[in-house]
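the two lines:
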Amino acid sequence: MQTGRFPGVAGAIAAAALLAAAPAAAKDTVTLAIVSFLSGPAAGPFGVPARNGAEMVIDAINSGTLPAPYATKGFAGATVTGEFVDENGGNTKQVTEYRNLVQKRNVDAVVGYISSGSCAALTPVAEELKTLTVFAICGTPRIFEEAPRQYIFRTMSHASSDGVAAAHYIRDNFPGVKSYTGINQNYAFGQDSWRDFELSMKVVMPAAKQSDKVLFPKFFSGQYGAEISALSLDDSELVHSSFWGGDLEGFIFQATPRGLFQQKKTILTVGGTAVYRLGKKMPDGVILGARGPYGILVRDRKTPLNEWFIKTYQDRYGTYPSEPAYQYAQAMLATKIAYDKAAAAAGGFPSQDQVIKSFTGLEFESFSTTVKLALAGGHQAVTENGYGISKWNAEAGEPGLTDIKFYPAECVMPPEGVTSVEWIEKGMPGAKC
Amino acid sequence: MEAAVTTLLDGLVFSSYLFLVSVGLTIIFGVMKILNVAHGSLYAWGAYTSAWLIGVWAEAGLADAGSFLMIAVAAIAVGGVLGFVLERGLIRFMYARDEVIVVLATFATFLILEDVILLVFGVDPYFAYQPMAYLGSAEIGGTLRDVYSLTLIGLAAVIGVVLWVGLTRTRWGKLLAAVIHDRELSVAMGIDVTRVYVLTFVLGAVLGALGGAYVAPMVSVAPGLGVEVIVLSFAVVVIGGMGSIPGAAIGALIVGIFRAVAVHQLPEVELFVVYAVMAVVLVFRPEGLFAPAQARRI
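prediction for all of em together
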């Protein structure tokens, strides 16, 4: 036998196999780097609610006060320590910071990231440094469509589902729409959002005509007078926008007195981030999305997890949680479940490889929805996605939504093995709506 | 016809905005040869202070018409205090230095002031919609327009005329011209150059802060507000000729009109058009359209 001739080699292989299966040394703490925008224009609408959501869930995890079935303490029993890091400053800075976190500060995992640019820049670095990295938001589908990833997971749907769900929502609620245009920020997310919506409309509402003057103003330009005039003069009945943050709020301030929201149907795919901040100043009748089943779209879902999340967040931060709070909390919860599941399988504190194995293909009930890591070999999550129409609730004195409708993950996300653009262009074969 | 009127108005509104935010920068450079990168911070501080004061005014239940007073108070307070502190604390040590050092020093100041904004005002945006709501809307050229943004045109025109008269028809303007042409000879003739410099810098700072304070009701006042402004201001100032007030006005007008036409007719080139205009002007007139004549010492 071969093993008889090379007993040393066989022994080494057996030892390595045992080591891989064996639990790692027990740990008292798991250190997570949690990265979100803490300065710059994305901090207010995204970064700070995201950090708040993560912080609140970490505290609940450490004290074992998450609702069932997640009421066990810590990650595999270890206390979680969060190091909050600013995502602002550009991709080069983020790559340097990531290396610093992993190689000098020896964090156990990195969780977060809002910008698609950050995620695209960090993907090769995370794979190179072989460190568990959980992307909480970043929209670009490219992360897993360009190559398989071993150490990276994303715990929410990518942004293509926003465009697909938007087209379905328009067809279902405004079937008479005959033409549409768009105003999106001139950078990757804005361009991709328009592309996905435009392609989806061609499939879902092929008779609707697209304007030949689609607008892409400069990111964070702030002044939209000419754009609002151009939209007013355009014959299109529907306006699509993935504006967010100060651009979104500035656009709403400038478009409201000019009657744009009365004149046109408007769909704001990331409008949910602004609705609580604007309050009564958010015009009625605008179609709002939240990049999935989060924020105001799920405020009235009566599940123990969601009710706990909303109440605890309100008690702690004095406002309803917007979607980034949900999305970061969801990433934290997914990581906890992966650690706990890996620990149960290993019979002790798990190694990173064991956590990754447990993370792969995970399916779990999150605060507001069911999450399935069904794509990219079990690394990319899919969830339902939906929209609603803004309506100020005078009685309660708070913003609300009417006509909320969700589309299942199998309707708005491509199946395994095909890129989102290819899938939409082929007419979304296999979609289960 | 309706489209032409709308495009023209859009261009004029954007030009007025550009003139307001760049005129302070050009005055400071024209008189002091200081390229003040911290101008963007003065704009942002003006916007934040204005939005905060308008909020305080509204919460006190006072009439919305009075919120315009808050805009003026914010511009004067921010420009007066920050302008004076910056000139006395930093800029006066830069007069004899190389221009690159000045740019680096004011850029560092810009970064510091941006962070101080975060410390003072936090990361959440400020909304100051009351002045805009107070003035309402009017239909002009077939489209509904908010009256507040149209008042930008009037404000820019008034500031332009006042500055032009002040610089060309008053004693102070003549003193300024003397300092611009020859600082040493001005000192020899008994002109208090230090005072002229302080007043000029404070005036430029007030104008920068006024740009932010007046625009605040139209936008979400959020971190990073000053970054975009400084880039656009430089483009306008370079097109018009650094240090020239008529140049800033013409530069703003050219950029504003070109941009409005692009948005309406060829939106794909909207981003490109501002810098394309700048490049074309620099090819044919490297010193800008209206750069003041340079005295040559013999």
